[in-house]
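Incident log, structure service

09:12 report received: a user says their structure output differs between two submissions of the same chain.
09:20 pulled the input from the user's history:
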Amino acid sequence: MWKEENNKLSRTFKFKDFSEAFAFMTRVAILAEVHAHHPDWSNTWNKVEINLTTHDAGNKITEKDRNLADAIDKLVD
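09:34 re-ran on a clean worker, output below:
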């Protein structure tokens, strides 16, 4: 589940291996383009950490963040 703290929505996703994690990141990148909203994220082997905040709104959580988080969740459901 997404955690809401420090004006960010954050979630860590874990996968079987690096290839699965990277494939997930590719799908998230396409979603980010569609939503015109891009995450702050990192990848370490099988783990992808995503932080969402709206920079244009003063680094606050907005509907843009919630909408992208919902779309990302649908990739792993």
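09:41 both user submissions now match this output. Likely a transient worker issue. Closing.
09:42 reviewer note: The longest helix spans residues 18-35. The longest strand covers residues 8-14.
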